[in-house]
Every structure is written in structure tokens, then in C-alpha cells.
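Q: My labmate handed me this sequence with no annotations at all. I'd like to see what the chain might look like in three dimensions before we decide whether it's worth expressing. Could you predict it?
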Amino acid sequence: MSITRKVTVLAAGLGLVTLSACGSSGGSDTGSGSGSGGAKTVTLVSHDSWAASKDVIADFEKSSGYKVRVLEDGEAGQAVNKAILTKDNPQGDVFFGVDNTLLSRALDNGLFQPYAAKGLDAIDERYRVDGDEHRVTPVDYGDICVNYDKAYFERHELAPPETFDDLVKPEYKDLLVTENAATSSPGLGFLLGTAARYGDQGWTDYWKKLKANGVKVVDGWEQAYNEEFSGSAGGKEAKGDRPLVVSYASSPPVEVIYAEPRPDTAPTGVATGTCFRQIEFAGLLANAKNPEGGKAFIDFLIGREFQEDMPLNMFVHPVNPDAGLPAEFTEFAPEVKDPRTMAPAKIAEHRDQWVTSWSSLVLK
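A: Here is what I predict for the chain of 364 residues:
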């Protein structure tokens, strides 16, 4: 999930921990100095969802000879836009966190220089969307899906929804909360999922039905998940009354890992027929002051050590096929076998128009 990633907040609530949509809100600044800091510092520019274990970063620093400096620059869209504006004099060497919903914007503006990372050939071609140009390297993926409050549906003796079609049925009226597609990464991903399911024309009719069925729209993920959703720890504390929310397939493990006492099963489930796959990328910034350090860091991002560190730090899936998943993922995060997808070129062609149409249709 940048969900990218990322995205964007994914919080367990009750003051125990706050996570971003595809990762923890804490950053890693294990280097020193400012800017790129010369040949011995590699600077990563990312969104606020970046997170990595200190010992894993320390291993890279020891093996490569580079110190790592991290600049977190807001949510994913904001970070991408700022990187584009500063591309002639970039803040760093590597950018991490552009996902497939925003990728065309970065590529069309010449944000990255080509680099074929070591180990890239082993990564599934589904994630290598830039072909032979190698301007970006896939690092992780996550699935934006509707989550449901198990207890609510058990109390009401109602089966939870499984598909997009289910969400417009009368029995689910006034139960769903989603994020604004114009301001939120998961909100945009959910919109793209409906466009992938119903086509360029049919998605608007679907959203008319969803609106008539009482869908609630809020600005961002944290409000939707931690305030409106009755199934999350934060939502329970806030007395949220919506048992359906647009979140991630990796949200249920969070509700287990950070709960006290820790439950045997996740209190939330995932409607796997509502998922849209989000792929998150890293790229070597054009005009990077330390391109060699940047290349080494990108190699590291798709290496097994970092890939196995990601799931419990950023709550996303690794793209490296040799990377194992933690038990919490295999036990509590459902496998999404057939997520909706869309080519970045098609997203680029329609994204702005779709968001404008969606806003006029849903928000008015």
C-alpha cells in the first residue's frame, strides 16, 4: 500500500501509535549536514509516510559508506509537486513515494533520470510500468479497499459487502465513508477502482447510485478511518458510526498489532472485491548532486533486507519476490487476488477530468 503508499495516515488509535496511509509518521534522519551533504551523504526526499528501522538504515550506511539523510515533504501529492518545482536544483538525490496514480505527472515533468537498479530484473513485470526507460523503480504495493467493522455486521446479522456492486444495495445505505478524491490518495484510488470496474462512462452512474445510497465523503483518510469508522480503535473512541470505510487491505493487521490486549483475530475485515492496487516507486532525481549515492540507495530499497523491513514499518507489500512477509501480514491481511488496476497512461489521460466530474457529482 503509497499507498502510497502513501499514503495519508493509518492510525491504530487510542493514543498507542499513529501511522500514515502506507507507513509510520516518523522519519529516519540518520545522517548529518544539509542539502545533499557532499559525496558521502545521500539525501532521500519522500512523503511523511516514510519509515524504516534504524538498524536497517545503519546496515546500508556501513556497507555503502554513505550517510542517509531523509527529508519528509508532506503527503504524496504535495511532495511530488514540490519535487517538480525544484527539479533544476533538487533537495536531494532520490525521491521515494510517487505512486501509479501520480506517476505520469512526475515523468511528464522530467523529474527523474534513468537508472536500472540492481535486482530489477527479478521484480514482476506488473510493477515495472516504465518499461525499458527505467526512470522509476517499483518498491512496494498496497491495495486500497473497503474495510468493514465485523462486530457491526454480526450484531445486525448482515453479511458484509464483498464487491463494488454490493455497496449500492439498500441494506448498506448510510454505512460507507470515503475520502475526497480531489484531496486524498485512497479517495482517488477508490475512484479509479470504480472507473476500472465500470468503465469510462459507467463510473458516473455508479457514483450517482452510491450517493443516493448515503455515502459520506470527508477530506482525508485519518478523519474517515479514525473518526468516522466504527471498526477502528480510533473510531471507537471517537464514537464513529460508519461500519464501512475506504482504507487498505493492510489495515486489519494494524488493529491487531497495536491493540492492548492483543486480539486473536482482527476486528476489521476487507471487501476484497473493492480493491485498487497502488504501486509506489523511487527514482533518481534529475540534477541529483550525488547520483552514485542515489543509485546505491535505490539498489538498497529493492534489496531483501529493506523489503522485509517495510511491511511492519509502512504497512505495504514488498515487490522483491525473495522478501518474506511477517506473520501478522499472512495471518491478518487478506490476499487480494484480483485487484483493479489501470495503466498509468490512462490515469494521466483521465485523472483530472474524472476528479473534476466526481467533485461536481458527489460534492454538490
